[in-house]
Amino acid sequence: MNANAPKVGFVSLGCPKALVDSERILTQLRAEGYKLVPTYQDADLVVVNTCGFIDAAVEESLESIGEALAENGRVIVTGCLGAKEEVIRERHPQVLKITGPQAYEDVVGAVHEHLPPSHDPFTSLVPPQGVKLTPRHYAYLKISEGCNHRCTFCIIPAMRGDLASRPIGDVLDEAERLAKAGVKELLVISQDTSAYGVDLKYRTGFWRGRPVKTRMTELCSALGELGIWVRLHYVYPYPHVDEIIPLMADGKILPYLDVPLQHASPRVLKAMRRPASAQSNLQRIKAWREICPEIAIRSTFIVGFPGETEAEFEELLGFLEEARLDRVGCFKYSPVEGAQANELADPVPEEVKDERLERFMTLQASISAEKQRAKIGSVQTVLIDEITEDGAIGRTKADAPEIDGLVHIATAGLRGGEFVSVRISDADEYDLWGEAAVQ
Ligand code: SF4
């Protein structure tokens, strides 16, 4: 690397989708000869990739911009909050430039404007798989941007626009490059994975010289040929999701499905403008488990949505009890500026939201603990994420990085990024403990 290379600091906030955006921007900057530095002091300029999904994220983003300004002074802002320039300018009028989500060229253009690239031919040598912010053995694979739904609590479509799927050939080429570069697990992400290709009318693309439709089922089947873990996130429970369960049963993709269900009361789901009913979701989950008993289902829910009555909340608890999901996240409803749900009548008081969240989490903790206990004595395939003083930490097929549980392995000599068979000896409601099983 050229010692005189212009130096950029990067702060990446928000969800995995934002992380993928950051990776793209960084890959481009590296390819152009910029040096990425880990401290504000070493940077000639700082890019902050923000999140604007909920009020807490907006505040965190504004604070991070403030910190970067105080520590460095030359700041470019991008990402979801970039769509609301006035909110940023009001608090931080001195930022150099603000660009919105998905605006890779604009961010890179802003960096060129305020910190021109140097011209060292060697710095254009960037690994073909790009620069990854995630550990080398797993990577996020973004298949589309935006969303065609209009859930009343969400402003993502307003910020990111309607669904725009990436061509299937590009997605599969990227996945193949990552696998060749040593990635062992791909996390497929988007706002709505099951809608992949709808906007392109499932257009036929090409991969490895053969035609492949731009559609979730075909995508999963092709990804299953790479021989690495493939994990699906943000899968809306459309009927055609049933088509990918046999791929899980056959070991082609991981038996893991992240399906955000949000609620179980038909009235609340309607007010949220979510399709599907709790009843059909239950039937579908039952059918999935019949085809692939190993499947781990993750979901997220919102409690305290405007107008949610005690009876409707209890309906949700009843659903939870029956569905016995493996991994569950729950959020208290919080109004997001610009969301339609803000106009709904009967907001639920904060203390009621708190109490419902606690009841929800207590119930799910007992379900999770029971499910985890059932794994004691079993041998699980674990992907090692990290080596520690006591051994290693990894994840089973049922655990996505960052959001699910961990396996603590009391065995020395393991390596990050390797698959190990682990005999499970203990469990709590999130994590597992064990030792490498002798093969
Ligand atoms: S499906 Fe709903 S919650 Fe998810 S991004 Fe689209 S509008 Fe937002």
Explain this structure to me?
By secondary structure, the chain is of the alpha/beta class. Helices cover 32% and strands 22% of the residues. The protein is built from twelve helices and 20 strands. The chain has helices at residues 16-31, 55-71, 85-91, 104-114, 156-160, 168-180, 216-223, 245-249, 266-272, 278-291, 310-323, 350-373, and strands at residues 7-12, 35-37, 45-50, 75-79, 97-98, 138-142, 144-145, 164-165, 185-189, 204-207, 210-213, 229-232, 256-258, 296-303, 327-332, 379-388, 391-395, 407-409, 419-427, 432-436. The strands form six sheets. It has a five-stranded parallel sheet, sandwiched between helices. Strand 4, helix 3 and strand 5 form a beta-alpha-beta unit. The two termini are 44 Å apart. Residues 119-126 have low confidence and may be disordered. Residues 147, 149-151, 154, 156-157, 191-192 line the site of iron/sulfur cluster.
Produce a short descriptive summary.
This protein has 439 residues and is α/β, with parallel strands linked by helices.
Q: How many β strands by DSSP? A: 20
Bound molecules: iron/sulfur cluster
Largest sheet features: 5 strands, parallel
* Largest beta sheet: strand ordering: 2-1-3-4-5
Rg for CA atoms:
23 Å
Which bin fits the share of residues in helices?
Answer: 25-40%
Q: In terms of structural class, how would the helical and strand content be classed? A: alpha/beta
Portion in beta strands: 15-25%
What gross morphology would you assign?
A: globular
Amino-to-carboxy terminus distance:
44 Å
